[in-house]
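Sample intake sheet
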Amino acid sequence: MAQESLLVLEAYWEDHPDLHSVPIYYTSSLARKCMAVYQTHIHAMDANIRSRFTKRDNPFVSRHVSSVPPQQGWMQSFAQGPPCVVLASPGFMDSGSSRELFELWAVDSRNRNGLIITGYSVEGTLAESILNEPDDVLTLKGERIPRKISIYSLSLSAHVDYSQNSEFIELIDAEHVLVHGEKTTMDRLRTAMEARYQERGVERRVSTPGNLETLDLQIRHTRIAEVIGRLANEVPREVDVLSGLFVVKECSYTLVDAQDLQECTRLVAPVMTQKQRLVVGVAWELVRWHLEGMFGSIQDVESAVNTIRVMGVVDVKHTGEQQVTLEWASSADNDMIADATMALLAGIDKSLASVKLTLHAHVHADTRVPWYEKMAWFLEAHFGPVEVHAEGRAGVDRAGRRGRGARVGGSGDLCG
């Protein structure tokens, strides 16, 4: 609405040269940004504006309208300066530049200022209250100031009017109509609409709720869906439950199986494939044994690497030495199976079953070392240097038996 008002003022100023000395300003930063968009995208406007642009006449590049200067104190300078026109926002005048300008201009004793309220004013706002032309108004600081400014009202609202509302209601065949706005206007519109439908013998409920008033509506709406694809192969009974995808397009409803989605609706269901790499620390045969024990039979899959499929969902691939990669199509059910598989493989190298399966007899590397050498290593670790008797030298133990011996710490002998 701001741009339309600016265009109207620009055209009027252009036709009246005596007004060229009176500048027009607008304070809305949003209007300034929108104006830049309009100036750039002329090709998106109607034929009249495009034809003017071809004649080097861009209606959004104004000679008489500009944004307010950026310096501080411009409101005071406008209030004390020569005549001008200012389009200020917001329109309800509860705060912002429109409220501040009004408080400055309303007390002018010369009674030369005027205020034009355009559009709809909500009940309880300053814009709505000053339409009654009170003698004084309450400022934002809580002070009463006299009103010397003239008040005018001009309907330039962007809201729809009665004819547009009625046309829209007839198109959607509405059972309930809600009207919001100023009370007097609401009542006039409600009376006109009720009379219009009564003449046609059509019952329509028209409600005009006030601010903060609760309105209860009972809406009965039945949706009829068309079942297509493999779901329609058999006629369902009343107790049967159909499971599929509910497709909504332009108020039409279709129930279709997920596998028939692309063929029947030209929609594509995206599939997200997830991968997880794990270091298991065991051989591939042990991985296979654990998966069979947990999930039962598993399926071998032909691939460049050893691959087994768990429950027809998760592929476990042998991608490296003691390393596997899980791959599956993500869904609520598949993710649970993948989580269970990863939990099993994460602790497979610490499992007691793995230890038992991999247990086998083996020969130690030091089996040919004499027993007394082993004993010497043990004693040296606990008591320090150990002297082993030379080959052929005999020692005597307490029982009088002869054999090899070792001297511990230089003070005791151990014989065998």
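Comment: The radius of gyration is 46 Å. Residues 219 and 255 are 24 Å apart (CA to CA).
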